[in-house]
Amino acid sequence: MAALIEENAASAEVLAVYEDIKATRKTDWVNNFWKALANHPPTLKRIWETIKQVMAPGALDPLTKELVYIAVSVTNNCNYCIASHTASARAKGMTEEQLAELLAVIGVANETNRLAVGYGVPVDERFLAAE
Questions:
Q1: Per the domain annotation, does 5 fall within a domain?
Q2: Are both 48 and 64 inside the same structural domain?
Q3: Which residues 6+ apart lie within 8 Å of 65 measured at CB?
Q4: How would DSSP label each residue in 18-29?
Q5: Signal peptide span per the entry (predicted)?
């Protein structure tokens, strides 16, 4: 397990990212994911800048982005990401009913994906046609 770089032990470069995280998220703390990435400041900065850009409001609303993040995290078996993005989705209004339905969709999608891969199902021509 990587060491967690706390604010009192962080370099100026890391502290600048931590401050941006806190300001952007309107919080007074930095979670462990970022503290672990701080072991390599260039990665910390790159991933933070990417997350900040991708998760910002856009064509998809912030809750939808969190739901997608949960789905990918469940599929990738990332317990940390499941917990953090579930908390974030709840803060953005996700209900327990929505979470349950999301988990059902994730489960069936993973099952049908594996079946399609296992059977080598060819993609229907109709699905490939541009409309």
A1: yes
A2: no
A3: 54, 55
A4: HHHHHHHHT-S-
A5: none
- What tokens were used for 125? 């021509």
CATH number at residue 75: 1.20.1290.10
Cα 110 to Cα 42, 91, 107, distances in angstroms: 34, 27, 5
Close Cβ partners of 121 (under 8 Å, ≥ 6 residues apart)? 115
Q: Please tell me whether the overall predicted TM-score, pTM, comes out greater than 0.85 for this model.
A: yes
Residue 64 maps to a domain: yes
Question: How many Cβ atoms from other residues are within 10 Å of residue 93's Cβ?
Answer: 11
